[in-house]
């Protein structure tokens, strides 16, 4: 697919007046000079060697010059060189610099929302350049001009208004939890409770909302685990969806507002540990931005993730998994945020090898795994589904096919959606679910 035939992402209308375009772009690009230091370095050191293009799932699916990660980053880098470097001011295009032209932002929206933000480029770049950082800067500028794709604006708004990306109210959530409790008891004959809004619990569990409302097996597995352990835990009826689309759109204010709600809720309930579910970008924001960045000082609770939590229980023999209950061949897709951004690689494999008889590895895998094609918020954008199926997701389809697996386990709601749609698009008889879905079926009660 050539770049010119790809869906256009620029919204036809905006909900707020647009500020002056050129002034906004120039000021935002010039501000790179003040940091962060990594972004500033990325403006200077790209050698145009082509390594990033060879490792990019988008360029793999459509090797068009415009889809080369270095070329995409140059939309910002070349303006920075023109404004802030002596060579760029004197030599212009000879130094890889150019002036920003009014209306150019239209191309920015297209290009920066063709990047999945997977960070695979940074893994292989000889200089460690992370083009996703530049992508997020570009998206932040796009957002400041009111041009963020409407679907992502809607998801962010719904989440800020209701506390979850599905727009589910408190009573609807409570009804869903009651249904899950009934399902567990009917399946295993044991009354397993999912406590809500309990103060002083050891753990507050926060999955993506899809793991409650759409594919709840992972949450049901966590309920079984806590039942077996006899440890106090709770979910919040007001804050039960860790997804944070501000990370994808470059809207820092929205990103922090989302997390402030969870900080306040954890503090209100007085929980000791904050247990993120199968959502890599949520854990990345909670652990490596909110906690590490001390957005609100020292947290009154520790931030953990359910994958290393369960893996440790398996290793210590505190829970028993009967792998004969999952006989079909299973493979694991590493979500980019878990694998490359949070270094959670071995833990899901520890769980899966204990939970299923026939585990098969993708090649490559771990921190070198290929993106599903729906990262960076793209999985939520149905208007570019064709692009996700035939371009950004092409390599992932091939990886799954080559394993011969009948079930793809992954730990990300966006990955689940993207890979499910890939299997449908390519007419592949492969089911998709969470890592804890297999725990749910295999745990010995």
Low-confidence spans: 1-5, 10-14
Share of helix, binned: 40-55%
Average of the residue pLDDT scores: 95
Task: Give me the count of strands.
Answer: 8
Which terms would index this structure?
single chain, 445 residues, disordered N terminus, four-stranded parallel beta sheet, globular
Write a short abstract of this structure:
The chain is α/β, with parallel strands linked by helices. It has helices at residues 21-30, 37-42, 51-54, 57-61, 69-84, 86-91, 105-112, 120-124, 131-144, 150-162, 170-188, 210-213, 217-229, 246-249, 252-269, 280-291, 306-316, 336-341, 346-355, 385-392, 394-403, 413-425, 435-442, and strands at 203-206, 233-234, 273-276, 302-305, 329-333, 358-360, 407-410, 431-434.
Fold topology:
Blueprint: H1 21-30, H2 37-42, H3 51-54, H4 57-61, H5 69-84, H6 86-91, H7 105-112, H8 120-124, H9 131-144, H10 150-162, H11 170-188, E1 203-206, H12 210-213, H13 217-229, E2 233-234, H14 246-249, H15 252-269, E3 273-276, H16 280-291, E4 302-305, H17 306-316, E5 329-333, H18 336-341, H19 346-355, E6 358-360, H20 385-392, H21 394-403, E7 407-410, H22 413-425, E8 431-434, H23 435-442
Parallel strand pairs: 1-2, 1-3, 3-4, 5-6, 5-7, 7-8
Helix pairs in contact: 5-9, 7-9, 13-23, 17-19, 19-23
């Amino acid at each position: 697919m050539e770049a010119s035939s790809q869906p256009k992402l620029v919204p036809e209308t905006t909900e707020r007046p647009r500020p002056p375009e050129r002034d906004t772009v120039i000021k935002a690009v010039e501000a790179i000079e003040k940091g962060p230091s990594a972004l500033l370095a990325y403006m200077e050191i790209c050698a145009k060697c082509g390594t990033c293009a060879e490792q990019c799932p988008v360029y793999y699916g459509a090797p068009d010059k415009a889809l080369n990660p270095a070329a995409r980053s140059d939309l910002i880098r070349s303006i920075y060189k023109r404004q802030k470097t002596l060579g760029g001011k004197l030599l212009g295009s000879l130094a890889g610099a150019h002036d920003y032209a009014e209306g150019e932002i239209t191309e920015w929206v297209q290009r920066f929302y063709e990047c999945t933000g997977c960070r695979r480029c940074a893994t292989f770049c000889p200089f460690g350049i992370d083009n996703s950082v530049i992508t997020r800067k570009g998206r932040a500028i796009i957002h400041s001009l009111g041009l963020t794709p409407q679907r992502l604006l809607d998801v962010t708004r719904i989440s800020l208004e209701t506390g979850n990306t599905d727009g589910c109210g408190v009573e609807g959530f409570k009804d869903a939890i009651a249904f899950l409790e009934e399902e567990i008891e009917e399946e295993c004959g044991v009354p397993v409770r999912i406590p809500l809004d309990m103060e002083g619990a050891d753990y507050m569990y926060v999955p993506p909302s899809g793991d409650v409302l759409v594919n709840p097996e992972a949450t049901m597995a966590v309920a079984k685990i806590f039942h077996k352990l006899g440890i106090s835990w709770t979910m919040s009826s007001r804050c039960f969806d860790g997804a944070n689309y501000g990370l994808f759109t470059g809207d820092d204010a929205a990103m922090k507002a989302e997390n402030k709600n969870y900080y306040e809720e954890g503090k209100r309930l007085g929980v000791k540990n904050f247990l993120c579910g199968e959502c890599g970008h949520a854990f990345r924001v909670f652990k490596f931005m909110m906690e590490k960045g001390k957005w609100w000082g020292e947290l009154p609770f520790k931030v953990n993730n359910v994958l290393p939590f369960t893996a440790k229980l398996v290793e210590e023999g505190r829970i028993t998994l009967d792998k004969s209950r999952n006989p079909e061949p299973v493979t694991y897709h590493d979500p980019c945020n878990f694998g490359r951004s949070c270094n959670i690689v071995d833990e899901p494999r520890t769980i899966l090898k204990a939970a299923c008889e026939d585990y098969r590895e993708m090649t490559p895998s771990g921190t070198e795994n290929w993106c599903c094609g729906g990262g960076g918020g793209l999985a939520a954008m149905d208007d570019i589904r064709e692009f996700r199926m035939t371009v950004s997701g092409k390599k992932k389809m091939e990886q799954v096919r080559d394993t011969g697996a009948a079930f793809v386990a992954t730990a990300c709601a966006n990955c689940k959606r993207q890979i499910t749609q890939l299997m449908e698009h390519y007419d592949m008889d492969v089911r998709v679910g969470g890592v804890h879905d297999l725990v749910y079926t295999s745990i010995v009660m």
